[in-house]
Amino acid sequence: MRTTRNEPRRRRRGTPRTAIFCILLMAIASAGCNKEQTTQEGIPEETENLHAPESPTSENPPGALSDTAEEPAPKQPKIRFDQPDYDFGEVEAGDEVEHAFVFENAGNDLLSIEKVLTSCGCTGALVTEQEVPPGGTGEIKATFHTKGFQGAVKKGLTVESNDPENRLVRLTIGGNVVSEVAVDPRYLDWEILRPDDSPRPKKLSIRFLKGRGLRLEKIQSESPSVVLTKKSEDENRAVYTVNLAENLPTGRFTGRITIRSNSERVPEVHVPFQGQVQGNVKVIPHILSLGRITPGKVLTRHLSVSKTGKQDFTVQEVKATTEAIATEIREEKEGERYRIQVTYTPGSEAKGRIAERITILVNDGKETFLEVPLYGTADEGVSKTGGQVDG
For a tag on the chain, would you pick the N or C end, based on fewer CB atoms within 10 A? Predict the structure, then answer.
């Protein structure tokens, strides 16, 4: 029966707690409503700043470019060739090949052609337009003289302009040259021989175009260092054996073989030859290259003369084939090694292929001559009015 009496008492104790919990829930809900109403009626300062437009400042005035804005491209010329390489196909030796290299100024500033250089005197160039405005075009007319050439050949032209990204542009003109008289090889070189060497003979072949009635009239060497012997000959071909003479003196020997025929287009062909018989003294390099030569610009090279045997020697004198070459002898090790400074000062008359010679007189118990060929190509630019250039 105690259980029956206690149940009503437990319900009476739980009623005040439930009421208090409900009152708290109502208070929290009321507070939330008041806060939402406050937010809608009065926007907080942080939220208000997010939507407000930025006021201009002195560092970023209205209409000013930001730091990330791209700057306008600088004005500069731009040279562009549609066809920098020209193949003229097959022509006969003696013909002249002409071609116009067309170029365009693809930039946004005035293009100026400053200079055109050619690789040899067989090529000429003429500039039609020295200055070309943006979008304009011009031509470089090239002429290739095929006389003296045979077989595949390619020559170059170098165009210098004020294009800052492409100041030098290389152009080429080439093809196959067929000659009425073809000689193989075109150059004979025995390089360096010792006194006791027995150099092997070389073969020289001369061919004529068929059906033209061509024939060999004369072949000879201008130097006694080379001896020619006929090996065979028929209607369109002749073959000769080229031997060196016996007991050649020490030092360098040079010369050329001249071939004459009844051809009107190619009446004469020259085959240069060279070699060096090494004695007690040698010179390095045995050929002195000057490369590109600019009139008025001094070039300096050096030769080393040293002994190869036991006999000491002295360099007595150095001569050159032109007054434009000055030399200075410096003894590095007495009786064994000398250095020769070679200074070349080309004058305004320097043009095309330069071929000179330096002769060194040495004494190693007997007088001996050492010869050193000197080669180079003189540059000549295009004037402001244009004109033909040989380089």
Answer: N
Position 173 scores a pLDDT of: 94
Tokens of 16: 């005040």
Reported in sequence order, the residue ranges of 33-187 that DSSP labels E, i.e. its strands, are 79-81, 85-92, 96-105, 111-118, 123-127, 131-132, 137-145, 151-161, 168-178, 181-184
Tell me the pLDDT tens digit for each residue of 200-258: 899 999 999 999 999 999 999 988 889 999 999 988 999 999 999 887 877 778 889 99
**φ/ψ bin of 310: left (φ > 0), alpha (ψ from -120 to 50), beta (otherwise):** alpha
The band of 174, judged by pLDDT with boundaries at 50, 70 and 90, is: very high
- Residue spans in the chain of domains classed CATH 2.60.40.10: 79-178, 181-277, 281-378
| CA distance linking residue 76 with residue 91, whole number of Å | 41
Identify which of 366, 374, 201, 371 has the alpha carbon closest to the alpha carbon of residue 277. Answer: 371
Burial class for 174, CB neighbours closer than 10 Å (0-12, 13-18, 19+): middle
* Rounded distance between C-alpha atoms, residue 118 and residue 253, angstroms: 31
- Secondary structure element (H or E) that encloses residue 276, with its range: strand 268-277
Class for the domain spanning 181-277: mainly beta
From 7, 190, 176, select the one nearest 93 (Cα to Cα).
Answer: 176
Does the predicted model carry a pTM greater than 0.70?
Answer: no
CATH class of 79-178: mainly beta
Phi, psi at residue 3, to the nearest 5°?
Answer: -70, -40
